[in-house]
């Protein structure tokens, strides 16, 4: 059962689970907690830097993994929650030892997720590089005015146009919970300064 639980935690992110069970996280990753009465959303859906996802309610102080969420939501025990998630997400896992085809499928999914994570990582750092670049261009390539004529460097015009797009893209990812990369990029900026 522990092997199945670990596979479930890896394959079913909290964000996906809450959506399947009828909740829509806001931009900050919060939903109204279904475990106590409240007027504001206090249950935070998160993904840590190491890829593990979970939840924590700042109102009732409950939290844990996707399995804990399903246990609380449906009032069932651990084993029933594992079986429910397995069924609800069509994972094809069983209580028995996983067969070759199941292990192969789980490995294929894990590789695909790793490739997607690497792609997101590369995209994130490229946008951080563009942010720094365009900010430097705006700072150091200011328009020059001579004899009533304003000369605007083409890089300055491009930076003024693209900088808001880059900032918006990064803000959207930050709001979605990708704070780990942001903190790393800020530390890198401090070291290079």
Can you characterise this structure?
With 193 residues, the chain is an alpha+beta fold. 59% of the residues lie in helices and 10% in strands. The chain has helices spanning 2-11, 14-20, 66-74, 78-88, 100-140, 154-175, 179-192, and strands at 30-31, 43-47, 53-57, 63-64, 144-146, 149-151. Helix 5 crosses helix 6. It is elongated, with a radius of gyration of 23 Å. 14% of the residues are buried.
Looking at this protein, list some descriptive labels:
four-stranded antiparallel beta sheet, 10% strand, alpha+beta, 193 residues
What does this entry show, briefly?
This protein has helices at residues 2-11, 14-20, 66-74, 78-88, 100-140, 154-175, 179-192, and strands at residues 30-31, 43-47, 53-57, 63-64, 144-146, 149-151. The chain is α+β, with helices and mostly antiparallel strands and 193 residues long.
